[in-house]
Specification:
The chain is an alpha/beta fold and 339 residues long. It contains 14 helices and 14 strands. Helix content is 38%, strand content 17%. The strands form five sheets. A five-stranded mixed beta sheet has the order 10-9-11-8-12.
């Protein structure tokens, strides 16, 4: 599910420089749809349902941006991308933003010329094994075969972990999460390693998920979030502040059920009034209608609603909020003020 570090940095940078000449906001409005890059299929994050409709945690962010910009959460063209194709798709202008469980790193920001628009999921790399393997720690995996997406930060983290712990392993190269799942279930590898959230999402699709264990070790920091091309700050601001609006809405008690009522008349909280457009001119500042945040929140709810619906503890994926709780609840989610 992860992150190609170098796919030809000079090529990507050159594509980005050419694509940045146009104003993405104008292109999206003229086209009438948002082209959003997602994964090829990771249940709970971005995957088509039985009716072919894309759903998931990352999909919800695409829909929120489309609602903020176009007033229509359905005005999204979802473009499936792999770890190898996602950066080229963004740099070339094929997609307007990437919302595909992608780790924010120095080289991707600086060398590949992308702008990360915040973190929508704080994660870390983990390991999944069949319980029949009889191991309870990643430090017991000396000599294991490991399904791994090549050319990614996952691959680099894996090499570092095994080297530091004086262990050896045999990589089984894979390109997509679907391929990894197939190989892992077929016994072609002892271990599947990727972001812990991706492991939980993958395990939830197994016929017998209880036969597999996610080991306790988390061996990296993986701040996952949306990204756009360098050179178009107006568009970057829109994606950044749409994500911020979803997080702030949870903190302020604004939900998909009450957002319309709260926006129709000024409340006694100036921050809420500014966010929802009944006071001030934040919409004008960002180049959108005054109700841009109302539309974004209405699309799928606030951050907490999106989390619980798609990947939370009451879903088959069963993820706790953990680091992804609001700062007021001991997590890392904290937005700048809307003023």
């Amino acid at each position: 599910m992860k992150k190609t570090v170098f796919l030809g940095a000079l090529t990507a940078a050159g594509l980005a420089a050419g694509a940045a000449g146009a104003t993405t906001l104008e292109d999206v409005k003229a086209r009438g749809t948002l082209n959003c890059g997602v994964s090829t299929g990771l249940v709970g994050f971005s995957a088509p349902d039985a009716n072919g409709e894309w759903t998931g945690f990352d999909v919800a962010l695409c829909r929120a941006v489309a609602a903020a910009v176009l007033g229509d959460q359905t005005a999204v063209e979802f473009v499936p991308t792999t770890g190898k194709t996602r950066f080229t798709a963004l740099a070339s202008g094929e997609i307007d933003m990437l919302a595909r469980n992608t780790t924010w790193t120095f080289s991707r920001d600086v060398d590949l010329k992308f702008t990360f628009n915040g973190v929508n999921y704080y994660d870390g790399q983990g390991f999944m094994v069949p319980k029949a393997l009889g191991v309870s720690s990643a430090k017991e995996l000396d000599g294991a075969t490991v399904c791994i997406q090549t050319g990614t930060t996952t691959e680099l983290n894996l090499a570092d972990f095994f080297r530091v712990n004086n262990m050896g392993y045999e990589p089984v190269p894979i390109e997509t999460n679907a391929e990894a799942q197939q190989q892992f279930l077929a016994g072609a590898c002892d271990v599947y390693t990727t972001d812990a959230s991706g492991l939980a999402a993958t395990r939830a699709t197994f016929e017998n998920p209880g036969d597999y264990a996610i080991l306790p070790e988390i061996i990296s920091k993986e701040p996952l979030g949306p990204l756009v091309r360098h050179g178009d700050d107006e568009w970057g601001d829109i994606v950044t502040w749409t994500l911020n609006a979803l997080i702030a809405a949870e903190e302020l008690g604004i939900t998909s059920a009450n957002v319309k009522d709260m926006s129709s008349a000024a409340t006694d909280n100036p921050e809420i009034n500014r966010l929802l457009g009944s006071e001030g001119n934040l919409g004008e500042m960002i180049g959108l209608n005054a109700d841009w945040a109302v539309m974004a929140i209405s699309a799928g709810g606030n951050y907490g609603e999106i989390f619980e619906k798609n990947i939370g503890e009451n879903t088959p994926i069963g993820l706790a909020r953990g680091l992804n709780a609001l700062y007021t609840d001991g997590g890392l989610l904290y937005t700048p003020p809307f003023r």
